[in-house]
Amino acid sequence: GFYVDVGASLPFDYSNTVTFDRCLGWEGLCIEPNPYLVTFLKTHRSCSVVPNCVNSEVVKSKAFSDTSGNFVFSATCLPLGEILVKAGLRGRRIDVLSIDVEHSELQVLRGIDLYDFDIRFIVIEVNPGANWLEVDSLLLPSGYAKISILGRDIVYARMEELFSGSFANWLPLASVNAAILPKSWAEFHQRVIDEERAEEQRRERRAWQQGHRRFQGLPRVRGWQHTLLLRTSPDRGRKP
Predict the structure, then answer these.
(1) Last residue of a domain, one of 95, 129, 163
(2) Boundaries of each Methyltransferase FkbM domain copy (predicted)?
């Protein structure tokens, strides 16, 4: 197997990829801008180390500070797609892409065209700087499905991997009727919109029915009860 670790940090602690090369013998690419951590990675990990930060565009000298705001080091930031091309990974299968870059996840994803690379699984830590919906909006249209949430880490898989790869015989997926699966991102997106709209209408109807029951217990005064119910009904103005 092969993995790419963006924001590799320490060789062992909090690493999503150390098991791949230490226990499974995978090859890998570790991307880490901190020169002090680069030394540890080269000493204790088998991955090739790229001493750059990752951004949606080139930044020649980005300053990094500690939690007290003191300058620690600077590094050149490159788009992830450019780093992978330089490493000769275009056209090569990447089994796992791990992204943990402390509030810069969206910048990493915006720096790669996922259709240019064969990345099967993506594990990304979603910090306050990148909410789930924004990450979904970048990955779901690119042919990925969200398959697991592990604390702050979200796991995405290529759709074809789910039905033709290692997940093909997984019971929950094997029992899914393929006819109910969306054929495209546009169909999936429209299905989500339709379901949200239907749920909103159900909430409106429940709220109106609850209000209607409360009004039934009140005395009638010149027909105001009937008029108010007509004005607030969720079916008002809709065609049958």
Answers:
(1) 163
(2) 69-130
My answer on whether 98 and 199 are in the same domain is no
Tokens 């008002």 identify what position? Answer: 236
d(CA 118, CA 46): 22
What does pTM read for this prediction?
0.69
Q: How, if at all, do strands 53-54 and 153-158 pair?
A: unpaired
**What is the edge-to-edge ordering of all strands in the sheet holding 27-31?**
48-50, 27-31, 2-6, 93-99, 118-125, 153-158, 144-150
Residue 210 CA, chain-centre distance (Å), reads 38
CATH of the domain at 102: 3.40.50.150
Q: What is the pLDDT of residues 60-108, one digit of tens each?
A: 989 888 777 788 899 999 999 999 999 999 999 999 999 999 888 999 9
